[in-house]
Design a protein that fits this description.
mainly beta; Immunoglobulin-like; 7-stranded mixed β-sheet; 3-stranded antiparallel β-sheet; 14 strands; immunoglobulin domain
């Protein structure tokens, strides 16, 4: 085969491989802690029927983790299968991933993969979810001749406080 033939064959092979899937752009979200979120599957907005829709969470980017996605759920026809994901999740009417009461541990990249029927094209889209820190107020309660500081679930205050007259409060 000539050099031109090799290049043409390579280009044809690349075109076939690249046409096998299509990926939508990443959508960024900035979510308050303990909110219920619905992550859209941009690939799911396409009309044709697909064999299945699967949601994954992608681990932080490291060379070893490129193919190590965590399955969350898969939907085929009228049957939705939940994988052994560490938290509650559900599938919305248009293929959205519904995550109730998110925390910063839920932050990351989520992928929606639509597997096409024979002869079709697989589609995937990604959503980057960023959940704000869960900050709970510190409660200070006055008691006789001093103050007591109660700890918050996310903040540990160790020590004691004493009242030193006028509006000064000393912590030790």
């Amino acid at each position: 085969m000539s050099a031109c033939g090799d290049v043409a064959a390579l280009l044809l092979l690349m075109a076939v491989c690249l046409s096998g899937s299509s990926e939508a752009l990443t959508e960024m979200k900035d979510i308050e802690c303990y909110s219920n979120v619905s992550l859209p599957c941009e690939a799911g907005r396409v009309g044709p029927k697909f064999r299945s829709l699967t949601w994954y969470k992608v681990p932080p980017l490291t060379p070893a983790s490129l193919q190590n996605r965590t399955g969350i759920l898969r939907s085929r026809a009228d049957n939705t299968t939940l994988y052994r994901y560490h938290r509650q999740a559900a599938l919305g009417g248009e293929g959205q991933l519904i995550l109730p009461r998110v925390t910063p541990n839920d932050s990351g990249i989520y992928e929606c993969l639509l597997r096409a029927n024979l002869g079709g094209h697989n589609l995937e889209s990604s959503v980057s979810l960023s959940v704000n820190a869960c900050i709970e107020p510190l409660t200070v309660t006055p008691i006789r001749r001093g103050w007591t500081v109660q700890k918050s679930p996310l903040l540990d205050v160790v020590g004691s406080a004493r009242w030193m007259g006028s509006p000064r409060l000393y912590f030790s």
